[in-house]
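Wait, can you check?
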Amino acid sequence: MYQLLPSFVLGFHGCDREVAESVLAGEPLKPSTNDYDWLGQGVYFWENSPERALSYAESIKRYVKRGKGSIKDPYVIGAVIDLGFCFNLTEEGALLELSGAFELLKATAGATGNPLPVNKAGFEGDLDLLKRHLDCAVFQNMHAARAKFDLPSYETVRSPFNEGEQLYPGTSFRQKTHIQICVREISCIKGYFRPLNDDGSLFQPND
């Protein structure tokens, strides 16, 4: 019963400016369907962090091979998100369910003789293994199993992600740690907006 989160959160999506303008004009964001998306398929947002969304977009522009040239002019749009029926990985029950989904995937792989997917580095020097083939398969397997047994579908997935180098020696805090939201049910996105700075100016001025 506690998986229904009756609250709105602000999410931020890093993309190309042309994509952002089309979304602000009424076009929906397209769900990501990569087989390495770490929270499974859906539309991804950084929770409460336009700065992190911009850093991501800038890195995709900088590493052309990684982003396949998809971002030429890094831009950030904000979204009002109703988490709804949320698979929240800060909760013990969700972690147990995800562990069970892995065991089911492992058993299926063993029965069919297929190898389990493996999380891999996305680029040279990637210590965080950003190509999350295994994690994506576990999430997609979990969603499929819930559908098979007529259990309600999760509308959103929310999870912390430890990323980057140590923030300082001897700590487990990381330089790029963030909370990410994967929206599976597009109706949970209630609207888009241009982010603002604390003084009310645009986070990214229009050129």
User: Anything to note?
Assistant: The chain has one domain: 4-193. The first strand starts at residue 4 and ends at 16. Helices lie at 17-24, 50-62, 64-67, 92-112, 133-148.
